[in-house]
Amino acid sequence: MAYKISEDCTACGTCIDECPVEAISEGDIYKIDPDICTDCGACADVCPVEAIHPE
């Protein structure tokens, strides 16, 4: 099960540096590629607005 970034994302960039498999891409709202995500949760742990949750 991959993680998903909600509309609450502020595109701060904190999560990108934490992803060990580079599954997160930039945009107005960042996106996580579910085919690459390993469900580690590192991104969710550092998100300052709690916009990342398990799908």
Describe the structure.
- The protein is α+β, with helices and mostly antiparallel strands and 55 residues long.
- The chain has one domain (3-54): Alpha-Beta Plaits (2-Layer Sandwich).
- The chain has helices spanning 14-18, 42-46; strands spanning 3-5, 24-25, 31-32, 52-54.
- Strand 2 and strand 3 form a beta hairpin.
Furnish the topology, listing elements before pairings.
Layout: E1 3-5, H1 14-18, E2 24-25, E3 31-32, H2 42-46, E4 52-54
Antiparallel strand pairs: 1-4, 2-3
Give the tags:
55 residues; Alpha-Beta Plaits; single chain; 2 helices; two-stranded antiparallel sheet; alpha+beta; 4 strands
* Shape call: globular
* CATH secondary-structure class: Alpha Beta
Major sheet attributes: 2 strands, antiparallel
What is the helix content? Answer: 10-25%
Spatial ordering of strands, largest sheet: 1-4
Radius of gyration: 9 Å
What number of structural domains do the residues give? 1
- Report the span from N to C terminus: 6 Å
- Beta strands, count: 4
Figure out the total of helices.
2
**Order of helical and strand elements:** EHEEHE
User: Which structural class best describes the helix and strand composition?
Assistant: alpha+beta
Mean pLDDT level: 97
CATH architecture: 2-Layer Sandwich
Instruction: Estimate the strand proportion.
Output: 15-25%
CATH topology: Alpha-Beta Plaits
Q: Any low-confidence stretches, pLDDT <50, length ≥5? A: none
